[in-house]
Automatic annotation (TrEMBL):
Main location: membrane
Protein name, UniProt field: Solute carrier family 22 member 8
Pfam families per the UniProt record, alphabetical: Sugar_tr (PF00083)
Compositional bias ranges of the Acidic residues kind: 602-613
Lipid bilayer topology: Multi-pass membrane protein
Tagged with keyword Transmembrane: yes
A single Gene Ontology CC term: membrane
Residues covered by the Major facilitator superfamily (MFS) profile domain: 101-560
Compositional bias annotation for Basic and acidic residues: 614-623
Organism per entry: Plakobranchus ocellatus
InterPro entries: MFS_dom, MFS_sugar_transport-like, MFS_trans_sf
Region annotation Disordered: where it falls in the sequence: 583-623
């Protein structure tokens, strides 16, 4: 009996990796407590494994702008006039020899020359049109979506945004459930089929349907692969990751121009086919691994172990040493050292990153939360409302600024290129600000600046027609507004995933993206409003920005904090930040548990926080 008991104890030690003689093992019981940031630090922040996966991910997201912006070129406005056949409906013989038929863009007119000047005596709306080119270079020309049908020409873009909204809600939860890579591959494959299919649709109705599906599948891989990129880097590099993701977006947008210029004068279907084939770049995703953080949180131990062994092999590190490093806190927790069911072994490392140990056994720290848990938590519910509203305001303000801006003269391809290049200085400025200030501060600053700029542009717009100098001021304010709202939007792409635990990160980001797409799909209504009152859209957007600034002030700061794995961690942040406003020492107090004082993150020597242990059920003070 004693022998059997001894063997059983030994087996338990080996299972949890606690035996000093035996090598540590990754198990379902300890996998969710692995500090992923510690894994990346040991492997090297810019290790060969991470660099390879980042390059593969960067190549695979190339088609992210295709479904959103390809309509700018495949649906480009075309010069047109009434077809000559329309002249048959006009009885020119009833008029004198001085009369003539003039074919306009939308109407055919009989103009009679009189002593007092030309007079339009007869006019008819055209049902057939002819264009500058015999080849339909735009789907507007193929289906005659001009004049009275021009509003139908805006439906593809609207349905694309609505599709993105639906995809943002329905597809990201699939990634949380079945894996980031699985959803990314499936969405890329479907996006490829739909994008190529758009080049062969026989009717406009089918074109609309496929545009909707294209937008939906776009969100399936766009949101998911952004999350994969975030989870591939340690906490202190998330700002760099945001810069990288934005630059990838800019590259994707700018790459549309060479294709459009190369196929200028060709049938629009040829250009659409070329855009669709860009999705073949998704083959790079086949060579990537699943997100390590997702594997560990969902206790996919075998796959996580294979991934870690592969990463160690690529980076020249020891797998056994890695496990000893990342599992050492579990040994202390099992022995009863510094163990707490909500927050365990908190520390500040050299980079100023606040680490939070986790215990999956606590009831409030569920490893597999559902969206119902978000609704049940007041903190998560408030966060979800604020970030979704912020995304909606960013989207509305962006299109509002575009609406109120003066159009650039010159070649449309060059104009599109300039608009894309404007994103680069905006991104660099955002990166500099994020490196010095918190996410919340940067989001508030850029959103507020965009609101002020847009309000000023609207005020100037009412006077711009009087002087040329005022019109230049309006243009400058508009470009500055676009600069600011672009930076604000990119900041929210970084900020939002940091506010959600691992198994709700896709859902939370997708829900915010859904709000943005819903707002974007409503933009045509504001153009109608602008024709009635030019000041109204700008005033509404500016007011929305100022309200957004107020609401953002209630969010917790995420800079220098690891990505949360549980809702309880986010709630602890919220409590800490609220109490930090009331207390100069920034202490985190959980009633009946313990108090933690966080070392300022700008401590140059990076010393860990010392721990003073108290006996019994007394609180613990960390200094």
């Amino acid at each position: 009996m004693a022998t059997n008991s001894g063997r059983k104890a030994l087996n338990q030690e080996e299972e949890y990796g606690l035996s000093a003689a035996a090598a540590p093992r990754l198990t379902k019981e300890n996998s969710a407590r692995v500090d992923v940031d510690d894994v990346w630090h040991y492997l090297g922040r810019y290790g060969r494994y991470q660099v390879i996966n980042i390059l593969l991910l960067a190549f695979s997201v190339w088609p992210q702008s295709v479904s959103i912006l390809s309509g700018v070129f495949v649906g480009m406005s075309v010069n047109h006039r009434c077809h000559n056949d329309e002249a048959a409906s006009l009885q020119l013989s009833d008029y004198s020899n001085g009369s003539e038929i003039i074919m306009g863009e939308c109407t055919a007119q009989v103009v009679v020359n009189t002593s007092s000047g030309p007079r339009v005596d007869q006019e008819t709306k055209c049902s057939k049109f002819q264009y500058d080119s015999d080849v339909p270079t735009s789907f507007l020309a193929e289906w005659d979506l001009v004049c009275g049908s021009e509003t139908l020409g805006q439906l593809p873009q609207m349905l694309t945004m609505l599709g993105m909204m639906v995809g943002a809600v329905t597809l990201p939860p699939v990634g949380d459930r079945f894996g980031r890579k699985t959803l990314g591959l499936a969405s890329h494959f479907c996006h490829l089929l739909v994008s190529v299919g758009l080049a062969y649709v026989p009717a406009f109705e089918f074109f609309l349907l496929l545009k909707f599906l294209s937008g939906a599948f776009n969100q399936g891989f766009m949101v998911t692969q952004f999350i994969m990129l975030m989870e591939l880097l340690p906490t202190e590099l998330r700002t760099f990751m945001s810069l990288l993701a934005t630059m990838l977006w800019v590259f994707s947008v700018l790459s549309l121009v060479p294709f459009a210029y190369l196929f200028m004068g060709y049938n629009w279907r040829t250009l659409q086919l070329a855009y669709g084939l860009i999705s073949l770049s998704s083959i790079a995703l086949l060579c990537m691994d699943e997100s390590l953080r997702w594997l560990l949180v969902n206790r996919k131990v075998k796959r996580a172990s294979r991934l870690l062994k592969k990463a160690c092999r690529h980076n020249g590190k020891s797998y056994e040493t890695l496990l000893k490093r990342v599992l050492r806190e579990d040994v202390a927790a099992t022995n009863g050292e510094n163990h707490h069911p909500l927050l365990q072994n908190n520390y500040t490392n050299k980079e100023g990153v606040i680490g939070v140990g986790r215990d999956v056994g606590d009831e409030t720290a569920k490893i597999n939360p559902s969206f119902r848990d978000v609704l049940r938590s007041n903190t998560m519910r408030n966060i979800s409302f604020i970030v979704t509203y912020s995304w909606m305001v960013s989207s509305l303000t962006y299109y509002g600024i575009t609406l109120l801006s003066t159009s650039l003269a010159g070649d449309p391809y060059l104009n599109f290129l300039i608009g894309g290049l404007l994103e680069i200085p905006s991104t660099i400025c955002m990166f500099i600000c994020l490196s010095r200030f918190g996410r919340k501060t940067v989001a508030i600053g850029f959103t507020g600046a965009a609101g002020v700029s847009l309000l000023a542009a609207v005020l100037v717009a009412t006077l711009a027609a009087k002087t040329y100098s005022l019109s230049l001021v309006q243009t400058a304010l508009t470009l500055f507004g676009k600069f600011c709202i672009s930076a604000s939007f990119n900041t929210m792409w970084l900020y939002t995933p940091e506010l959600y635990p691992t198994n709700l990160r896709n859902v939370g980001t997708g829900m915010s993206s859904m709000g943005a797409r819903l707002a974007a799909s409503a933009s045509p209504f504001f153009s109608i409003l602008a024709r009635k009152a030019i000041w109204a859209p700008g005033a509404l957007f500016s007011a929305a920005c100022f309200l957004c600034v107020f609401l953002l002030s209630f969010l917790p700061e995420t800079k220098f904090r690891e990505l949360p794995s549980t809702i309880a961690e986010v709630e602890a942040w919220y409590v800490h930040d609220r109490q930090a406003k009331k207390s100069k020492n920034g202490s985190l107090t959980i009633p009946g548990q313990f108090t933690k004082v966080i070392q300022a993150p700008d401590n140059d020597d990076g010393d860990d926080i010392d721990e003073d242990k108290d006996g019994g059920g007394q609180d613990k003070d960390f200094k």
